[in-house]
Amino acid sequence: MDLPLPHPVSDSLRRADVYPVGVVFDVVFDAFRVRLTTLPDDHIRFDIAEGPYARTEAVRIAATPIRAGVFAVSWVEADGATVVHVEDFERAVVHSYATLPNGSFLRMQGQMHFISQQEGQR
Length: 122
Fold this sequence. Notes:
By secondary structure, the chain is mainly beta. The protein has a single domain (11-117), classed as Calycin beta-barrel core domain (Lipocalin, Beta Barrel). It has one helix and eight strands, in the order αββββββββ. It has one helix spanning 11-15, and strands at residues 20-28, 33-39, 43-48, 55-67, 70-76, 82-88, 93-99, 105-121. An eight-stranded antiparallel barrel has the order 1-2-3-4-5-6-7-8. A hairpin with a 5-residue loop joins strand 7 (93-99) and strand 8 (105-121).
């Protein structure tokens, strides 16, 4: 899968104090690539097309603002995996921490590649 060129982050995302809805972005981690879509009603959809973690799921999230444009986002997946992201829209980077059902722990960092920034508010 070819990645889109990184788009400049919109000023509204950089200054956001509420987690945005309607933003679509790819994140490239060493182990895999994921497309994240922020959805209404405190949900996010992740699509992992290839590799050992390949699947698509929409999950309920808790998003906590850290500062303008930076959010701690956490969720539990259907298989019991737990995920915490620090999503930094200003620097276009995601720090991800996940505990998998087998007990292994992943620490990852990846660049955001924006697909759509037609964000709204929750």
